[in-house]
Each structure stands twice: as structure tokens, then as C-alpha cells.
Amino acid sequence: MLLSDVRPAAGPLGPVDLEALGEAAVWTDHHDESIDAHQRAHEAYLAAGETVAAARVAIALVPNHIARLHMSAARAWFNKAKRLLDGEPESVTHGELAAMTALIQLASGETEPGLESARVAHRLGQTYDDRDLVALGLVFQGYALARLGRLDDSMAMLDEAMAGAVAGELGPFATAMVYCRTICTCLDLFDFRRATEWTDLVQGITDVAGPVGVAGDCRTHRAAVKIFRGEWAEGEREAERACTQSAAWDLNHTAAAQYELGEIKRRMGDFVAASEAFRRSHELGGVPHPGLALLQLAQGDLDGAAAAVAGTLAGTQDQLVRAKLLPAQIDIALARGDMDIARMAAIELDGIAERYGSDALLAAAATARGALRLVEGDARAAIRDLRSGRRAWQDVGAPYETARARLHMADALTAIGDRVSATMELDTALSAFRRLGARPDAERAASMLDELTSS
Q1: Which of 449, 392, 448, 443 is CA-nearest to residue 267?
Q2: pLDDT at residue 205 in the model
Q3: Among candidates 82, 438, 20, 12, which has minimal Cα distance to 265?
Q4: 357 by DSSP, 3-state: which?
């Protein structure tokens, strides 16, 4: 039986009941029924002359359509809500419109306007003592401030919003949005330590009390954290479950989960499965790079890899998005002998790491700088950078990246004649790759070790 078939014994559902039905449907994976019930509630409120309530339901329909990539419908409902509220006395619903405005602006890269809209939502939440609105105002401000490099203020706001979400103080939509934006911000900043802490806490609460937020949403971000920590088998299971749970309505998170699957498969050497996952992510509206470009590199298509990552970089000025792409561009450029491109990318990555300052971002910059200096012939400077990068990757709990840094370190140590230390680096890297299941990297480490010990 569908939720929309439910009728009370006394007669047809009124607007309040239809609105409640729409909310219940979206959180129980009855997404078509949710849209239908919300649209009926909207019409019923309009017929009753309850303009503000009609606007509230219109706002609720916006994220549902965005998640399904129905952007024209999302814009239509947003504009309808805005028009209905014009001239109405200030209320909580105006705050909900401000929060939805912030969400759209920030997703479009309009950071300063999004920050101002988030401040309005937060102020109105405090004025009308609405916890959901306060939390949404906080999390959107935190997200915007992170993009602007104001990390102390950003993290304080995100942590405060998350504390309310995991404590069960918020409704379903606010809980899901707070978790999603907080973890996304942490991942964008390469702040895997904070992402891990919140993800572990959310998972612990979920295990005891049931889902926090949207299951597919949570699993997508949990998969990314597990991949970083080297828990690839669990990360793969989380990503597959996320794809299943999000596919019915949230194509954005389905695309992200497919990308995580592609990353796992690429690192494990299953290039066919990786290619299919990246293709599926792209098909759903995601950006398959840098993973797909690195897959092309691994398959020997150096020109295609270079073109792919350069084209993706040309399409964004967001520094945190670029920070995810630049290490891949450096690897590809070094493989092709494009030293000018590698140097420019390394300089840019250094600047972003200095601005945002997360340990993992600094590790990525130091490792890339060391790899570049090694190719340039300055092995001793490379060793300093690579040692710094390796230590930072270890500190943040990234076994794969640590092992990759060890491979560069072995080359640099060999270049200065320290074969004993190089052998130890390769032994340790090989053990890590085998433990992770990173077959291509394990084969490379084993080959380097054989060459070193036999010469």
C-alpha cells in the first residue's frame, strides 16, 4: 500500500495532514508520494487563504526537486514561495526561505551572498526560537566562512550545529542538512580528523537509536572517510549501500557514492569496474576527476589524463575544489615531463595549503613538492619535503597516502646513495599496499625493491 492511499475514517486529508504525510513520505523513501502530498497540501493551503503555510510547503518541495536534478521545478517552487511571502509579516517561514536561498547560493558558488542569507536565517531562528532554523543558519555560515578561509569561525559554527543534530534536537531535514554540509566542508578542507570524529559519533548513535539524517547521504560521506582511513572493504560496502539508498531520489549523492566506488576500484587495480563507476558518476551529474584522470594515467593514456584534469581545473575557481585536482595534475605532468605545468600546480597547491592550513592539505602539498624536486634533481630538498609529507599523512591516519609518499622517499634516498633506508621505505610501503589491497602500487613497490636489492 502507498502512503498516499491512506485516508482517515472521517474523510479526506486536510492541508495539515497532507503536509505531515509529505514529510513522512520523504523520510520513508516514498518520494513520488511526498511530492504529490506536498503539492496537494500547497493547493489546500492556498484554497484556505493560508498564504504563509502555502509558501512553507513550496519551500519544502525545493530540495526534493534539487535532489532529483529537476532544476526547473526547484526554481519554480522557490520563486512561488518568494512571491507568496512578499508583503507578509516577518515569520519563521521567511527564515526558512532565507536558509533555502543560502543553500542555493552556496551551491552556485555565490559565497558572500550565501553567507548573508545564512545570517538572516540564523537571526530569524533566534528571534522565533526555532532550533532547526538556528542550526541551518549556523551550518550555512560555517560552510561559507570555510570557503573564505575563516576557519576558526567556520569550525566553531559547524561543530555547534552538529552538536545539536547528533543530540536529536533537530527535525529530519535540518539534521540531514547539518550532517551533510559539515562533513562535506571537512572533506573539502582535507580535515579528515574532524570528519572522522563526527562520522564515528553519528555512526555510534545510528547503531543505537536509528538513522541520523538521510541514510544514503550519511553512507556516502562515511564511505569517503573510510577510504581515507584505509578501510576499503567497509568503504566499498558503504558506497554500494549509499548508491542503493540514494538512487530513488538523491542523484547528487548517488553520483558521489559512485565516485567513491571508482576510487576504491582504481586503487585496487580493478580498472574495468573503476571506469564503469566513474562513468556512472558522470552520467548522474558528478565530476569523475581526479579519479578518472588518474585511472587514465595508470592505463598509460598520459595525454588523455592531462587533458581531463586540465579541463576540469579550467572549469572551477574554487580553491578547495582545485586542491583536490592539483596533486593529480602534478603526478600526470611529471609522468609526461611537463615540468612547467608541474611547477605551476605545485606553487598553487602550496598557496592553498598555506591559506587553509589543514594537516592533510599541507601533507599533500609537501609530498607533491618533494616529488617535483626529486625530478628536478634536488634529492636532498626532496627528502626534506617528502619526510614532512609522510609524517603529516601518518599523523592524520592516511595509510595509502603515507605509503605513496614512501615510494617517492625511496627514490630520493636511492639518489643520494642511502640504499639501506630506501629499502626500509620500500618494505614498509609494500606491506601497507598489500594490507590495503592496492595491487598496482604493491606491484610497483615490489618491482622497485627487486631492482634495488639486485643491483
Answers
A1: 443
A2: 53
A3: 438
A4: coil
375-386 in b/e form (b: 16+ CB < 10 A) is beebbebbbebb
In which element (H, E) is residue 454 found?
Answer: helix 439-454
Q: How far apart are CA 68 and CA 252, in angstroms?
A: 8
| Cβ count near 72 (within 10 Å) | 8
pTM: 0.85
Residues making up the chain, counted from first to last = 455
Distance of CA 198 to the CA centre of its chain: 14
Is the pLDDT at 3 greater than 60? The verdict is no
Tell me the C-alpha to C-alpha distance, in Å, between residue 176 and each of 9, 20, 104, 217, 252. Answer: 34, 18, 16, 8, 14
Q: Which three cell numbers stand for residue 74?
A: 526547484
C-alpha cell of 419? 640504499
In CATH, what class is 358-455? mainly alpha
What pLDDT, on the 0 to 100 scale, is given for residue 209?
A: 35
Contact 286, 259 (CB under 8 A): yes
Positive or negative: CA dihedral 250, 251, 252, 257: positive
Selection from 225, 185, 271, 262 nearest residue 396 by Cα: 225
Q: What is the mean pLDDT of residues 342-360?
A: 95
Maximal C-alpha separation, the chain: 88
> What is the structure's pLDDT at 217?
64
pLDDT tens, 176-233?
899 889 998 999 998 888 888 888 777 655 543 334 444 556 778 888 889 999 999 9
